[in-house]
Amino acid sequence: MFEGAWLALGHSAHGDLEAACEVGQIVTDRLDLVRSPRSAALLHQLAADLRRRQRNAHVRSFLPTLEHALAEHAPSMSPGR
Questions:
Q1: Cα(first)–Cα(last) distance of the chain, in Å?
Q2: Which residues contact 15 (CB under 8 A, 6 or more apart)?
Q3: Mean pLDDT of all residues in 23-30
Q4: What pTM did the predictor assign?
């Protein structure tokens, strides 16, 4: 998952937004199975990068899915911890 998140960021950095979204979707689908704070941090970074590129159809399609998944899998803050 960690390597996939980096790969998505790399695609985004090189302007290949279709590949960034495709790889990002694969990684996002694994959020249910893998609890990785480092990977989640990279996915937050990807989301921030993609927010600036919402004119792209692939980004417009994928970004809401990514943001929803990140919100669903955010660590819960329990009182007293």
A1: 27
A2: none
A3: 96
A4: 0.87
pLDDT exceeds 60 at position 75: yes
Q: In whole angstroms, what is the distance from residue 22 CA to residue 2 CA?
A: 15
For residue 45, what are its two tokens?
């970074």
Report how many domains make up the chain. Answer: 1
- Domain extent for 68: 2-72
Helix (H) or strand (E) holding 3: helix 2-13
DSSP assignments along 11-80, one per residue: HHHTT-HHHHHHHHHHHHHGGGT---HHHHHHHHHHHHHHHTTTTSHHHHHHHHHHHHHHHHTSPP--TT
State the average pLDDT over residues 59-63: 98
- For 72, phi then psi, to 5°, come to -65, -30
Q: Could you tell me if residue 56 is inside a domain?
A: yes
